[in-house]
């Protein structure tokens, strides 16, 4: 059995709540260093930087680890909620 983290994460499933993302990046002119760091620290790769240098999120695949919530708690650049019941990540255990 492989121990690669990507292969383990691939075992999870995700229920997309179309049009109702549970995490949003608030409108910003210039992202803080904290917000920019999420492009590399989000374990699900949900964050990216667009051509204007702004940080965007596609929350599909989010593992609800809370990293982005904690990292941007002081800057207030993120609106974070858990997904509605029945949506979001479905972890594979074992
Ligand atoms: S909660 Fe974790 S997995 Fe989800 S977007 Fe934030 S850092 Fe990524």
Automatic annotation (TrEMBL):
<feature type="domain" description="4Fe-4S ferredoxin-type">
    <location>
        <begin position="53"/>
        <end position="83"/>
    </location>
</feature>
<dbReference type="GO" id="GO:0051536">
    <property type="term" value="F:iron-sulfur cluster binding"/>
</dbReference>
<keyword id="KW-0535">Nitrogen fixation</keyword>
<dbReference type="GO" id="GO:0005506">
    <property type="term" value="F:iron ion binding"/>
</dbReference>
<keyword id="KW-0813">Transport</keyword>
<dbReference type="InterPro" id="IPR007859">
    <property type="entry name" value="ETF-QO/FixX_C"/>
</dbReference>
<dbReference type="InterPro" id="IPR017896">
    <property type="entry name" value="4Fe4S_Fe-S-bd"/>
</dbReference>
<dbReference type="Pfam" id="PF05187">
    <property type="entry name" value="Fer4_ETF_QO"/>
</dbReference>
<keyword id="KW-0479">Metal-binding</keyword>
<comment type="similarity">
    <text>To ferredoxins from P.putida and C.tartarivorum, ferredoxin I from A.vinelandii, ferredoxin II from D.desulfuricans.</text>
</comment>
<keyword id="KW-0249">Electron transport</keyword>
<keyword id="KW-0411">Iron-sulfur</keyword>
<protein>
    <recommendedName>
        <fullName>Ferredoxin-like protein</fullName>
    </recommendedName>
</protein>
<keyword id="KW-0408">Iron</keyword>
<comment type="function">
    <text>Could be a 3Fe-4S cluster-containing protein.</text>
</comment>
<dbReference type="InterPro" id="IPR012206">
    <property type="entry name" value="Fd_FixX"/>
</dbReference>
